[in-house]
Amino acid sequence: MEEYLNTPIKEIITKFPKVGEILEEYNIGCVPCKVGSCLLKDIMEIHNLPENEERELLRRIAQVIYPGKKIEIPRIERKNRRKAGDLTYSPPMKKLVDEHVLIKKLVAAIPKIIKNLDPESEKGREVIRKSVDFIRFYADKYHHAKEEEILFKYFDENLDILKVIHEDHESARAHVRAILEGLDKKDKGKIAEHLMAYHELLTEHIKKEDEILYPWMDRNLSTAQVGELFSKFNEADGATDKEVIGNCKKFVEELEKKYKIKKEAVK
Amino acid sequence: MMKHGMEGCPGSRMQDFSKKSADAKEETGKRGSQLGQWPIQLHLVSPMAPYYQKSDVLLSADCVAYSVGDFHKDYLKGKSIAIACPKLDEGQDIYVEKIKSLIDDAQINTLTVMTMQVPCCAGLVAVAQKGLQSAKRKIPIKSIVVSLQGDIISEEWVQ
Questions:
Q1: pTM over 0.90
Q2: What CATH number should be reported for the domain whose range is B38-157?
Q3: B140: chain A residues, CB-CB within 8 Å
């Protein structure tokens, strides 16, 4: 089992597709991951399941890899193991999770925006332009910049988990560029395609950060680093144009009202 | 087996852990102190002292250091400290003012409050939160609750 704990997950899933299905049952979404270079032991560390769940997961994986053999499941030592149902954040991480709420509201409205897409009329183009402005300013400049320019600097940027997050950010930016190209050409199909791709990407991305990345980072940050991050995030917020933030919030509220977005859609 | 004495306030209820202590392995060698300042009692300290400026501060209930075996190594190291007893100390309004001054004037980075599991000890977290609420700056506050036998019961960010 030690050998497979030190093997990249893509290799394991390619050789034993059933392992991917088992991971999915534990909400560990390695199957669709484009990178897949995390070692199995690192995945256990990053997802930090309660000890009994982790042992059961490893036992099931061992059964797939070594059918019919009795395999000893190694105990993976961890400093701060999560208890079942326990998901709390340090103040700087909580700030990022709270910022996600507004982004999730915009993301939840996207299917309705697509349904009512009208790039031919000025009113229809305005909704798309304002959505892109929100994404570029609030989601990217205000929120993602906090992650990329401050938070990620506290970690080795070559870590697989950070590569995955960076790739998500770049994909999101590419979709936004494509939406604007579609808008220029009044290409309804292209706008709809990339809006939906952004919707799907961000839904998964935010879940990944809220449930996996931030809790893992919290477990690895010292108390002093948490204080520094909190202070740097406050400085970044202080340097941000409050009026633009206010406009972003107002725009999302208008969308929610216009399209009657239910609260459950942003949970 | 613990022997329980009189019932009543959990903070003063008699309990005997001596058997556990007798079973503990004999340790050799010496461990250096991690204390980097004097004074430490919250009434006596000055928030203007150089060792508080921009530091990570540990606000510890008096009993904690006697309970947690590795207090110096695991919790005091790298931090400035102030100690207090939320049950017995008088003038706790002054404590709130001191915390406020540590946050605003000394511009401390974080505040970690270590308390015992007994209910009255939670008052120290409340003092810290009041100090934060009255301060202009905001900082993260962490609460660590320790069992009577020195185990960590919980460790969470409360602000």
A1: no
A2: 3.40.50
A3: 90-92, 226-227, 230
